[in-house]
Amino acid sequence: MAEAPERNLALDIVRITEAAALASARWLGRGNKEAGDGAAVDAMRVSFATLNINGVVVIGEGEKDHAPMLFNGEHVGKGGLSLDVAVDPVEGTNLLAYGRPNAISVVGVAPRGSMFNPGPSYYMQKLVVSREARDVVDLDAPVKDNLTKIAHALGKSVQDLVVFVLDKPRHEKLIAEIREAGARIQLQTDGDVAGALMAVDPRSEVDVMMGTGGTPEGVLAACAIKGMGGQILARLDPQSYVEKEAITEAGIDMREVLTVHELVRSDDCFFAATGISGGDFLHGVRYSAKHAVTHSMVMRGKTGTMRYIESYHNMDRLSKISAVQY
Fold it and tell me: CA-CA distance, 31 to 98, in Å (whole number)?
């Protein structure tokens, strides 16, 4: 049955990621990730307070990295739709602090109770692909087998594939196997939400993301992957004995393979990301004499609509009326 267009919350939450990006971009390359992250958190809190939602933060930030908190369980919004909220005010705080590309600000929302709650889990193994390859991958298959099937689904040779991998010691074996298979690799020090987005964004040269990254970041990325029709396969992958024991005590099955539909159980989800530092994926905040320019991507899961937004912010006017410190 045909439905009339509904309110697209992605166009509301992109104002939140824009505000966080504008506030934190002043700290680009200044070596102080806590200050940059804190500016983004403050901007997000102020911006959330303007929305007609009853949001509860399910995916927050701060505990693992001792950063300023938009903590799990925090209520945001001034009342309205009951939503789960996932935030990362600065995804890639080190990227921002050292002026490296692909730091972004990210928000995802979905109906209350539909987001996977990672509990005490900090890390998960991930495999992310676009729509064309979503039905051919297997988290437990050998790397070469997955790359061969992905290449066939995309109409490429394995040698043409680009695989996004975080440049971490834990990925030494994975990187060797990708190279042995003949695929190309894009190594990044941080930013696995951005890596997941690149794997499903048709504009990006990245074809697949592999490796272990943040569990909260996996849930956040799933909001976008769902809208783009891609797939994420994930399994909790604790990186310490303490984390493993905490997950066991919480009664979470570490053997279960989670798909995009387990990570976000509703199609009625929304996602927004705004670039902070420069990159080919999303351009960073750029300043002119009168304006700050931001680049964002927004998605609505139910319709699969993707938008890329370039915004010009009049900083003189904003500084006079906005409670956000730009």
Answer: 6
